[in-house]
UniProtKB/TrEMBL annotation:
This is Alkaline phosphatase family protein. It comes from the Bacteria. Gene3D superfamilies: Alkaline Phosphatase, subunit A (3.40.720.10). The lineage of its organism: Bacteria, Bacillati, Actinomycetota, Actinomycetes, Mycobacteriales. It comes from Mycobacterium kubicae. Pfam families: Phosphodiest. PANTHER family: BIS(5'-ADENOSYL)-TRIPHOSPHATASE, ECTONUCLEOTIDE PYROPHOSPHATASE/PHOSPHODIESTERASE. GO terms for molecular function: hydrolase activity.
């Protein structure tokens, strides 16, 4: 399980900020040795670009293939945080903190004291973002240091709770689907010194809907490579481009899908189901904890690791956990260890059960992500 990895997604923005001479920022990734002196840094997060997926997409991505061959740029592997899911990773990137500290502890979590399940992707203003995620972001730190920090994001991201939790302090530059997104990013980088952040979900969407290795996934890889190529070609001499990801992923076959809502033994004693198919948080009814843990341990033997919240926290899966965030983790934490998924068809939208690609757990193909550094 990933905890405080020697090199992780938490180190990316502090290292980028160090290149821009922000006080207190540490370059733990050794970027300065490669970039030299720069006055602007672009950070682009490619959703779903796992380190272990790079060989599969190389044939459709000439730039990334050249990186793998050592012909251009510099690449190193990092870990994302646990769970290996987009909301958790984006906030770990933005704050430089582990999930136990920032509190975005999964794709969905139970709001303590209620039976409500908060979907972090659909989260707007309840709970308030600065209470639910109380840590400062590196965008705020950059702004306080007088360094411009701009985030070029789809317009529907602006105003969401997750955007605020991960990127607050940034100057938002909304875009729409009709715009040339690579050109918008390139224009922002050329505009002046500072940090520019960009994001693309194209590869991850194709992985979820059509599967890793599908024709649609390879087509998405081509589009991502074209975006990055455009940025590299347009980089000013004083700029560096950092490319990273939030997680990898794997395909889950039909015979490895367990629907908890189809088995009364798995629903017995459960008050709230949260998390996602690769990492389930089970909040139990009073007095039912021991039976739930024992039943799930027996029925998912060989498929998943089943343990108590206390054991998962003690193992360091989330890093140090702020007591304010502890109850967001299930009483029982179920983490898939094989290519399995635990569906919850009565609790989640039907499209969730139709996905092919998944992530969230702690296997190497899910937590391994790249950091690729380009100079002109």
């Amino acid at each position: 399980m990933p905890g405080a990895a020697p090199k992780s997604i938490c180190d990316v923005l502090p290292a980028a900020s160090a290149l821009l001479h922000v006080p207190g920022a540490a370059d733990r990734l050794g970027l300065a040795e490669w970039t030299g002196e720069v006055d602007r840094v672009a950070v682009v997060l490619v959703d779903g670009l796992g380190w272990h997926l790079l060989p599969q997409l190389a044939a459709d991505a000439p730039l990334l293939a050249a990186v793998r061959n050592g012909e251009v740029g510099q690449a190193q592997p990092l870990d994302c945080t646990f769970p290996s899911t987009t909301p958790t990773s984006l906030v770990s990137l933005g704050t430089g903190a582990l999930p136990g500290q920032h509190g975005i502890l999964g794709f969905t979590v139970n709001v303590p004291g209620t039976d409500r399940v908060l979907n972090h992707i659909r989260w707007r203003d309840d709970p308030p973002h600065d209470q639910w995620q109380p840590l400062p972001t590196w965008f705020e730190r950059l702004a306080h240091a007088g360094v411009a920090a701009r985030a070029v994001l789809p317009e529907w991201f602006i105003g969401s709770g997750l955007t605020a939790a991960a990127y607050r302090g940034a100057q938002f530059r909304p875009t729409n689907a009709a715009e040339d997104y690579p050109q918008r990013l390139a224009d922002e980088i050329a505009m002046g010194p500072g940090l520019v952040y960009g994001y693309t979900a194209d590869l991850d969407t194709a992985a979820h809907v059509f599967g890793i290795g599908s024709q649609q996934w390879h087509e998405a890889a081509t589009r991502v490579d074209a975006l990055l190529t455009k940025l590299v070609e347009a980089l000013p001499p004083s700029a560096a481009l950092l490319v990273t990801a939030d997680h990898g992923g794997l395909n889950v076959p039909a015979n490895a899908r367990i629907d908890l809502d189809a088995d009364p033994r798995l629903t017995a004693g459960i008050r709230v189901v949260a998390g996602e198919p690769r990492v389930r948080y089970l909040h139990t009814r009073p007095g039912a904890f021991a039976d739930v843990r024992a039943t799930w341990t027996e029925l998912l033997a060989g498929w998943a690791d089943v343990r108590s919240r206390d054991d998962a926290v003690a193992a360091g899966w989330f890093g140090p956990v702020d007591p304010r965030h502890l109850d967001r983790i299930g009483d029982v934490v179920v983490t898939c260890t094989s290519d399995a998924a635990v569906l919850a068809t009565a609790h989640e939208p039907p499209e969730s059960a139709r996905l092919i690609g998944f992530h969230g757990a702690a296997t190497a193909v899910e937590v391994g992500i790249p950091l690729i550094v380009f100079r002109r």
